[in-house]
Amino acid sequence: MLSLKIAARFLKSSPGQSALIIAGIAVGIATQIFVGSLITSLQADLIDAAVGSSPHITLLPGDSASTVPGTLATTASKSEPLVATAIPVRTLSAIYTSGEDSVPLSITGGDATDLGLIYKLEDRMVSGTYRLSAGEALVGTVFAEKYDVGAGDPLELLLPDGTMAEFTVSGVFDLGQATANERVAFVDAASAADALGIADEEYTAIQIQLTDVFASTEVADRLGNDNDVTAVDWQAENAELLSGLAAQSGSSIMIQVFVLIAVALGIASTLAISAVQKTRQIGILKAIGMGDGAAGRIFAWQAALLGAGGTLGGIALGYGLIWGFSFAPVPFSIRPEPTFIAISAGIGITVALLSSIIPARSTSRLDPIEVIQNG
Amino acid sequence: MADLLVVDAIGKVYGEGSAATRALADVSFTVAEGEFASIVGQSGSGKSTLLNLIGLLDTPTSGQVLFAGENTTALGRRGRARVRNEGLGFVFQFHYLLPEFSVWENLTMPAQIAGRTVSGEERDRALQTLALLGLEGLERKNANQLSGGQKQRVAIGRALMNRPRLILADEPTGNLDTANTEAVYGLFRTINAELGTTFLIVTHDRAVAQQTDRILEVRDGELVQDVRNDYAG
């Protein structure tokens, strides 16, 4: 611990120099935390908007069947730990006609409670009641406005078999996407079964949400293979979004790496200067018996102290920047991830320690005679 | 008395080939435990080189140095650092105190390097050393706040801290006035008499050398004289 004591004293003897490098590290770590948290939150927001209220995996009947059993939802939940919600649904297409206008609607039939788990409909109702009793339907805001339909109004639909079915609108929802708000409608499970002409225990799809949206491809592969059904995952249908997110992540990582390199160079140059400034002291310490390892550790400790101080300052500054961002007029907020911040802190201290390698090695090799002879 | 130090045919050459400069050649002598000896010579004669080789601050090109029966020339860097810390004490012309540390911290640094906590017996020893050097009350002062004579006394105290068997002093009073010079040599004599510490003092000043019991003279890198001084003390 003598090396630590000497390191602390060396830093204390040059307070201006120490404060400057700690400030440099703090700015670097704060930038890393802010940029990392900003991109992570932005991506989480985009992903939530894209698939937060829709299925991550849809299990469709295999080649040899036209329906899937409702029990498959329970099977999927039990076999895959990443499955958060699995619900059986009946989907069909229908056409709504109003005067000379007609619009195709994508109908999803299911239990109101089940559908709420995937589509978060309860929170997305803008008028009427979130309820799907027999013969009731929920429609989107764009549809309701365009065709002047509201809660309590009748909704006549032309089914694929050419027959007409009549529903009563119980409420209007807003899924956050204009297309979905115009073309999607929900009806009760029994009415959908009647419209499709299938039995009570038969469904057209199982809709699944996962706890980790990016695990959808592998989970879909397993579920498809194990249950002889066709599994479609959201990633396969959103390749452009994913490549955009990947590019964003890549640029974020590049920024963070370059910031860390700048921090490392800052610490290394400061320690190199410090090593030259303290050559005499190191020579004296070696002359009176300090070993090469202990002498080298003085600079490792200096780096660790600078790294720790700078990192703590950086975390505080990073939180300050995130707090300041909360006042910016943007439609999302940055959520600092404790794990990411802990990793940033770890990286900060590790970079500081790595920066001390060169001065520590040159100090280890210093011969006391170089100092004694040269005064 | 047993030989504490055996210098066996050591030589030192700086540089290589046509640029080689011989600083020391085939020097041999022994020093017994408790001796109070000096090495004299003109500037550039090789006396400081000899002291640096004995003090394991430098390595000889040829020959060997045995300290307390151990062949120190064969030791690695770690072993040499250990011997410097435990067996030797250094006093240089310049005090070489650590300016970032207090008098007390400078004094006890060799003990801390040896891994000992400065408490109990160690603390008593440091206090005794301070008393012996007339530095009581200055413990908390920063090394930079002392006078030249005080700094050199702290450096002597630091050399004594681990109770070394041999103290190597290279022009220890070169930067001091007459009064401080006499005080320092008085201290050396007291330490030699009270603690039995062996002294080897490098000086170019024959008047200083006359105060030691034995005078070794180095000229052009060779030991040319080794005499007892019955008039010293």
Helix content of chain B: 25-40%
Low-confidence stretches of chain A: none
Overall geometry of chain B: globular
Report the helical percentage of chain A: 55-70%
Given helix and strand content, the structural type of chain B is: alpha/beta
Structural class of chain A: alpha+beta
Mean pLDDT of chain A: 89
Indicate the overall shape of chain A: elongated
- Straight-line distance between termini of chain B: 19 Å
Series of H and E elements of chain A: HHEEHEEHHEEHEEHEHEEHEHHHHHHH
Rg over CA atoms of chain A: 32 Å
Percent strand of chain B equals 25-35%
- Strands in their spatial order, largest beta sheet of chain A: 3-4-9-6-8-7
Tell me the name of the CATH class of chain B.
Answer: Alpha Beta
- Give the strand line-up of the largest sheet of chain B: 6-7-8-3-9-10
Query: How many β strands of chain A by DSSP?
Result: 12
User: Count the helices of chain A. How many?
Assistant: 16
Integer count of domains of chain B: 1
Total number of domains of chain A: 2
- Helix-strand sequence of chain B: EEEHEEHEHHHEHEHEE
CATH fold node name of chain B? Rossmann fold
